[in-house]
Amino acid sequence: MLDHSAVEANIPAADLDRARRYYADMLGLNPVSEVEGQALRYRTANGTFFNVYRTDFAGQSGHTIAQWHVDDVDGEVADLAAKGVAFEVYDMPGVSWAGQVATIPGMGKAAWFRDSEGNIMCIDNGVS
Q1: Whole-model pTM above 0.85?
Q2: CA dihedral in degrees (44, 104, 75, 97; nearest 10)?
Q3: Whole-angstrom Cα distance, residue 38 to residue 55?
């Protein structure tokens, strides 16, 4: 059944070359494989995968597309902001903010940014 399967994020990109540069230069990620002109496949150090694929419908979603679970949200935000990643602050009831990092009661810390294609990404501490 599905509870014994792996799941991956598929992230849309209007411009695959622009997305590749952004993911490499800003996020420090490089694809492990590619379908020329169609898709890039990434693998994180802990073994999870995600794909960035070419479509005209990139950046149209108003919600988080993918999340990175990290040990130190504040440190990761500082590192990415130093590279030029712009984080967003949202008006969310019950959430407190310290700069660009939200503390969500019962869930921990999180921060959001948009990739080169306008997709909303999240960095959090993985507490559920």
Answers
A1: yes
A2: 140
A3: 8
Q: Which residues of 75-107 are buried (b: 16+ CB within 10 A; e: fewer)?
A: ebbeebeeeebebeeeeeeeeeeeebbbeeeee
Q: Quick one: which of 28, 16, 21 has its CA closest to 70?
A: 28
pLDDT band at 114 (very low <50, low <70, confident <90, very high): very high
Q: What is the mean pLDDT of the chain?
A: 94
Task: Say whether pLDDT at 128 is over 80.
Answer: no
Q: Which residues contact 17 (CB under 8 A, 6 or more apart)?
A: none
Structurally, what CATH architecture does the domain formed by 2-124 represent? Roll (3.10)
Residue in 4, 122, 125, 3 with CA at minimum distance from that of residue 66? 122
Q: In Å, what is the CA distance from 122 to each residue of 4, 10, 65?
A: 25, 15, 8
For residue 26, the one-letter residue type is M
Domain boundaries, the chain: 2-124
d(CA 69, CA 51): 17
